[in-house]
Fold each of these.
Amino acid sequence: MARRFQVVLLIALALGVVGLASPALGADPASLVHIPKPSSVHTEPLHVPSKTLMGPGPSTAHPRVLQAAKLPLLGHLHGEFVKIMIEVQEQLRYAFQTTSKYVLAVSGTGHAAMEAAVANFVEPGDVVLVGVNGIWGERMADLVERYAGVVVRLEKPGGQVFHPDEVERELAANPEIGLVFLTHGESSTGTLQPIEGMGDACKRHGALFFLDTVCTLGCVPFNVDKHGVDITYSGSQKCLGAPPGASPLMVSSAAMAKLKQRKTKPFTYYFDLNLLGEYWGFEDNPRWYHHTGMVTNMYTLREALSILQDEGLAEAWTRHREAAERLWSGLERMGLELFVENPEDRLPTVTTVKVPEGVNWKDVASHMMHKHKIEISGGLGPTAGKVFRIGIMGYNAGPQQVNRLLSALKEALDLYGQPKGEL
Ligand SMILES: Cc1ncc(COP(=O)(O)O)c(C=O)c1O
């Protein structure tokens, strides 16, 4: 009898049925698969076309940055990876021009860093002055209200910027304002917000200065410490020319002190800066797991910041200015009109140019994409339907790229309407 049992057991093992019949493993795994394989998806290695991204973002990544994306994964607390994080923090201090200890890259795109800033620095009932001259001020006002802050709106039509006196007047009239938000590069309207004197105005009234630098960091002259900025966030996929997903955030010690005085914990776990500071070593502490670091995005951000470091910040600012001026004069020679009237208020990184009468911007943009693989985009928020938005950022901020864009745009405009100006 025992011998017969042994034989049956051996046969069962040989057929591999013991595992399948075992209650621990449950029923045949295939019986759980009810959704068929997606027949519309071809599983050969992914291929995407190569395009020149000259819209408001993302911008074309530098080939060296894309090489870094191929590096093997490290654990997010491995010594080699922590070293990369420390280097990124040093490089961000250079890009922001700050000595602040509180510098990091938030996992996620610019919105993640934007939301992280609001979630940490706005407590219920806090009053925030928000400069609204395009979609980013609108979005900030929305975010502040979602975190139960009280918004005081300072409004300007799209295409115009704020003066420190206007900010100071609001601060004097509303002494309860604790935070002042402005957008350095308003990518929906194409304005460059002058920030000279803004930080001082905020300090005179005991408010923190909070600035969006998503479309300016690395491309436009900017010095966090000199301009008295307390909180600023940026993006990786615009001026820095890295893939989206790791967003720089900088906080001054004054802002950090405010965070420590909060009456309530921030209503976010993922973006809680006290916890993130433990992972980023804010107090030179041993690093702790908070969430899995975005390993590959950190490589690419570091590579992009290394390219900036090699070039030099002042040199990168000049290159972007020269590329923008080349673009603006080319557009004007073609008879096109720039949306931002005052040349000093024009953002070098995202240019808004009026769509000529009788031209449908989509025809032009789609011709440029299909024939030349160049992306430009239409307006957003207050400029929707009225302008083209052309991004000259990072890898694309050079004379050849600008010339290529201008001739493709001229060809499209000649096809789809006016003008017929010279190039
Ligand atoms: C000025 C500005 N702020 C914030 C954002 C949001 O960044 P993201 O799209 O990376 O979330 C953008 C994106 O275009 C932007 O241009």
Amino acid sequence: MFSATTTSRLAQAATLANTAPGPRGGRLLPDRLDQPAELPVALPNWNFDEDPSSATLRSVRKLRAAVAGIWQDAHALDIDAALEGVNHLLASAGPVHVIAPEPATERTPAVLAAGQDSDVPEKTLSTSLALALAEVALAGELTRLRTCSGEDCTNAFVDLTRNRSKQFCDEANCANRAHVKAYRARQAAESSDRGDHSDHPDHSDDPDHEAESDEMSSEHGSLEDAQEKKDKAGKKKAKKGKKKK
Ligand SMILES: [Zn+2]
């Protein structure tokens, strides 16, 4: 969908946005870019000095606010606002040109480039994220910039699934927590439908229940796959329930 370079830059953009204080995966986290020394820890792939200046930190915090704004606009489907945000970042990146990636044939699509080799890390970071977000906009894929639907989580993530079905971030177990909650709600609804708990088998002995728990804990599996399996498991269980009645 996107080039490897763009995909990795988008992941960096989400990582940066998610250092802001707020609900993250069910926990209220503090600002993780509060001190200059936190920069190389928060963004380990970006070659910041071990002891960056507070001016560097301020630049990265401004970039973080800009990236988070683009993400929120895209998630809210306000594409004009998201494009405006991308244009701001592109303007500070300086002249943008197109280059052939290496190795290239005469039909290899060119990629966007900007900046100088002498740029400081915060400038390189800003330029890279601007170019990646521009590529996303050019591909008409800004709606892939999403915010986690998990309870108490506002993490930014990029939905790279074919059918745009990803709803949860990968880093905070949010899909698992949501599935467990939905599963418990279903169980509670089923019990109250039956109105009688006495002839209902304990689900902890139910092999299907075990299987479902395993699926739910595979947080790195694709959500679609997990959902599909769960739907099947649900149908199986429904059949089984009928037999028992
Ligand atoms: Zn989340």
